[in-house]
Amino acid sequence: MAYFPFYMDLSGKKGVILGGGRVASGKLKTLLAFGTEMVCISPVICEEIERMAAGETKNAGAVRLVRREAVEADLEGAFFVIAATDRREINDWASALCRKKGIPVNAADDRKNCTFYFPALAHDGPVTVGISTGGCSPAAAAWLRGQVQRMLPEGLGDMVERLGRLREAVLERVPDQKQRAAILTELFLFCEKKQFQAEEGDLEEYLSQLLGKADRGQE
Q1: Residue 40's closest CA among 87, 48, 115, 138?
Q2: The Siroheme synthase central domain covers which part of the protein (predicted)?
Q3: For the whole model, what pTM was predicted?
Q4: I need a surface site. Which of 6, 105, 106, 163 has the fewest CB within 10 A?
Q5: What average pLDDT does this structure show over 182-194?
Q6: How many angstroms separate the CA atoms of 40 and 42, rounded?
Q7: Cα separation of 138 and 163, whole Å?
Q8: What is the pLDDT of residue 109?
Q9: Which of 214, 212, 219, 204 is nearest to 177 (CA)?
């Protein structure tokens, strides 16, 4: 069965991850880039997670360490939970408890204990492409991620972020939806023509020209 990819704002959301090893570290690294407030619970925690918690890595989010086995109270208020321990009974316990409480849960390498899957991500700034095989083949998802990541042009993320800021100006200035869509499309095509390397101010100047044309068309 295919799974529908919801895109959600995770900034400031509480996530709980059980486990302190390599698998937990990889998932934490991905999630922290999206501004999540993570709690990592494990009696033993690897050096890489220690570095994340100490702020030695570039993270948008933060991680707090709890050096013991998890208890039920640890999952209260969690927006999602990831069970990534090397003990099957703990992962099973976490999955069952989350299902009971209605908390989305992902159990590493255990499809039946997941209510959501962790996608393979190609990521550049606000551009995020999520790839899932419905838990059938993580290797295929990883391969696809690599293919997509190589397809993303250099500078795309920065340029899309600039387009996002300019979009607000277009929404305020142009009341007609079709006209707005046409202007925003022209802006993107301009960026593509410049291979997403437009000089500072070029995009703003081109938008000014497009808005001038729109204003004259309304006269």
Answers
A1: 48
A2: 124-150
A3: 0.83
A4: 6
A5: 94
A6: 7
A7: 33
A8: 81
A9: 214
